[in-house]
Structure prediction request, 284 residues.
Amino acid sequence: MNAKQKYLFDLNGYLHLKSVLAETELCSAQEAIDRLLEMPSDKLPPGIVRGSGNGDTSFSNGFSADKSLESLTWHPSTRPIISELTGGKPRFGRGSLVVNQHHNQRITSLHCAREGQGWQTRRYAVKDGHIHCNDFICFFYFTDVNPGDGGIVVLPGSHKSEFERPKIFPHPQSLTEPDGIFFQNLEDLNHPLHPALVNVTPQAGDVVILSELTVHGVLIWKPTNRDRRFLILRYKTQYFSDDRGRKHPFPEEVWERLSPETQELSETVSYGHTKSIISPDLGQ
Ligand SMILES: [Fe+2]
Prediction:
């Protein structure tokens, strides 16, 4: 993780890395996603489940559909950042593929890990020049998001907030409430974005890294002729397990086809252990 990345992640609570995928990596991943979309649900690789309940098409464990996608879990562009944020003790915990389409009118309102149950377990701190962040997401993008399209919005700097965000209820009256700070009517396609919020607009081949403590939400996808395709890869520290004592978080049929490197990255192990995938040049 270089000095610029460290500065921006600490300042904003997220990072937008541009053009991190090589042309061949991007093409292979895009083709794998096309193949997955064409497959009937009962012919998907074992352990991958197609969901379409909210209008999007999503694939749980979609990262394991093809090696071009699985390899993104420990990609040279994100590896030093994942290592830095976890103090060299990373664990990959979940990887879904999402195809976000216009006809999904479901919105994801603003939220963050501080506001849910288990807030005590999420940490962001800086010590001795190193950032510690024990719950974050790497989003790999396979299609372009342009300004005005919709997609993810973030409240920069909110990962360090010492106060809970005032509760806002998504009804029209909230717009005039004095505590409507940072309120965003995500349901209204034409509601202007609150000036404190940033709509992140990654291009195909970009990565967005987001602390779960950073307030974020999703705007309705406006284009009717294009969709938004991305992989959600979730990371925690290796000793932060929410898998009820299991060694790894995946169904056995998924686990069996993962490479040894991905398996090790996904294992829950003790604080004192150093995984063999961790390079000694941590933080570079
Ligand atoms: Fe979220």
